[in-house]
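FAQ: What does the model actually see?

It sees only this:
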Amino acid sequence: MIELIIPESLAFLFLFLPLVRPFVKKLWPMDGLVWLPVLALGIAAALFPAYGFRPECIPLLFCAIILNIINIPQVLSLAGRMKNDDFRERNWGLTVFLIAFLVLAAAAGIYFLPGEETALTGEGVSSVVVYDEERDNKYFLRVYGQTGPKSGTVPALLVIPPITGSILMADRLCASLRDGGFTVVSYSRLDFDFPSVDQDGKSRNPPLADILNLFRSYTGGRFSEAANNTGRSQETERQADIRFLLGLIRQNQGIPGYGEAPGNRTDWGRVFAAGYGAGGSALLSLADQDTALRGIIVIESQLLSAYKGDEQLSAPEFSRDANWFRSLWAGISGWAANLRSRKITGIGTVPNPKIPVCFIVSDQVQNAKHQNGRYAALIQVFRTAAAPVILAAASGAGVLDYSDVPEKYPIYSTLFPGRGKKAWPRAGCIPGTAALITNFAVSVLERENTGAGKPSISRKPIDKQDLYIQTRGALSF
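And it is asked to produce this:
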């Protein structure tokens, strides 16, 4: 992905030269410079279909659009074979401002580039497609198996990815957890995850109305009943996903269609699960019931199903209608309903998990405002759970820093920071998160003391000074 510097630099140069033309006399005779912004706009626009959505390139594209609008009179004059020296009469203050804006846009695009390729991991990963015929759902599973022979058996870990970004935001973490001794299973679901990624690596987006509802639940789920009910439906869908996949694993003693390499054996009876957002909330609700999971890891979840209001509205169904107009109208209707909906009044009954739980959250959890806001429901679960629980927050970690985001989309990590000085660099977020999950699992296995001997996975080094930790029960990192 580092090669993005080349087209970004070309676009910057093609925009910069016409801008500085009034200040450099040697450039005055070069009328052909007026065509350079057009080329720059083409390059900046082509970055997105060529490299996917790159948010750090948006300022450069915006700058190219503005400068091309300003440049229209000169292009028309040159196309009509007319002499045009109006560039000498430009407002110098405006020109200096545009140059400064261009430099900042180009600098942001280069500074926030990912250090490595953002493609999905290929080595040691098996792609499997499974169907839930009862609910008419299609799942694209990715199994991160051990790449070398292992002594004994290894535990399994089911990773429920965030709905926004899906497996693209958890892929490297899954690979890191695999390297730590787990057999990792993750997935994306067609027409639900944004996007789902099929077995060929092709991304597919859900209907527009579902995308709008998704962001509405993120921003208003703790304040508006309409948005909260949308979030509840997402958690319900994730619960059904987890039930189906766990049932599939138990029924087949593994993943059908996945063959382990010689010398490796996964203990599909020892399954942990980690979930982001709605997936983590769904795990908490399931852990309140009988479950065969050894332990769950809840990553940055709001547990919207625990909130209550004056009046419960009916949760919207996720539409499978791909008609863009109907999807857009449904999204607008939902937004309008949200404006007049009743407000959330507090927290009702929270789950009481029966198995060990690890909460991994932003260090904003130390802020009283967020303890009574975003993390209020999770903290209530932490304080009332009968099972052992542990809460961990890395210093300076934001809400997106426990995923692939810091490496793949570092600008998002900067826009949503934690409260303190970052303990982990960009490249340290994935191994740091993997260490938290691994050490929790080791602690649970040691606590069980089933007589099977030492756990096949081992603890990873973590600097305690970099962590904010609270525990209840016999668990330790």
